[in-house]
Amino acid sequence: MLDCKIAYHDKSFDPRLPEFYETSIGVFWHEYLALLVGLWADTPVTMLVSQHRDAEWLNQAAERLGFSVVRGSTRRGGSRAIRQLRQLCKTNTLGIAPDGPQGPRRSMSVGPVFLASLFDMPIVPVGVGHRRPWRANTWDRFALGKPFSRARVICGPKIRLPKRLSRDDMDDFRNHIERVINQLTEQAEDWANSRYDIRGQMRFRRGRLSADATIDGPCDSQSISKAA
Predict the structure, then answer these.
(1) Strand 45-49 relative to strand 93-96: parallel, antiparallel, unpaired?
(2) What is the per-residue DSSP string for 15-60?
(3) Which of 21, 103, 146, 214 has the fewest CB atoms within 10 Å around its CB?
């Protein structure tokens, strides 16, 4: 059991919320997959999972928790994955860890930018933090929250990309989105290691949420105040 809270710049991103109206591509670092798989279980979210053997555990876990899973990446199985995603993204938000399955850690691949431009979908960067988590001795220092510790998630603003981006434009967007994910991750980690509140935070609850679940208004990442 974790003390888990989440805050949003735009609640329409989250398919669990009544404000949800538009499918998006959520991007987050691979080390925090365990928490996010639990957060969006049994909701219309499709996980893009690499065909690499190291990702097989994630494929099995995601399917058991109610996700649709597409196997593939820009390196392996890409064409088939794109055909599947094109159909699924009409109804499902996509979840991608763009530094997986083998890193480098917290370094974004261009894949989500390519998909966002191809499918005309916004990208939503997501930052996650645990308070003193257990860390695996892996390339990403995979994190698992300790029982009763704090876990925090910040969902950033939607980033809309033009269609038919050039390779240079894709790389510019990749660099920008990588910086935003890192900024949100640092904020979420600071939040998890403090006793502060963020405006707009919500308690973590699995599954679909009702309209009365919100504590406050939209998240303002510049407005962090100590709890009373």
Answers:
(1) parallel
(2) TTSTT--S--EEE--GGGHHHHHHHTTTSSEEEEE-SSGGGHHHHH
(3) 21
Contact criterion met (CB below 8 Å) for 8 and 219: yes
Residue whose tokens read 């269609």: 163
pLDDT at position 146:
95
Question: Is the whole model's pTM more than 0.70, yes or no?
Answer: yes
Do residues 179 and 123 make contact, with C-beta atoms less than 8 angstroms apart?
no
Rounded to 10 deg, the angle between the 167-192 and 111-119 helix axes is 110
Q: pLDDT (tens digit, 9 = 90+) per residue, 177-217?
A: 999 999 999 999 999 999 888 888 998 766 555 544 444 44
Tell me which DSSP letter residue 192 carries: H
Identity of the amino acid at 161:
L
pLDDT score of 60 more than 50 = yes
Averaged pLDDT for residues 19-26: 94
pLDDT, tens only, 157-166: 999 999 989 9
Ordered strands of the 202-203 beta sheet: 68-71, 45-49, 93-96, 25-27, 123-130, 150-155, 3-8, 202-203
**Residue 69, exposed/middle/buried by CB under 10 A (0-12, 13-18, 19+)?**
middle
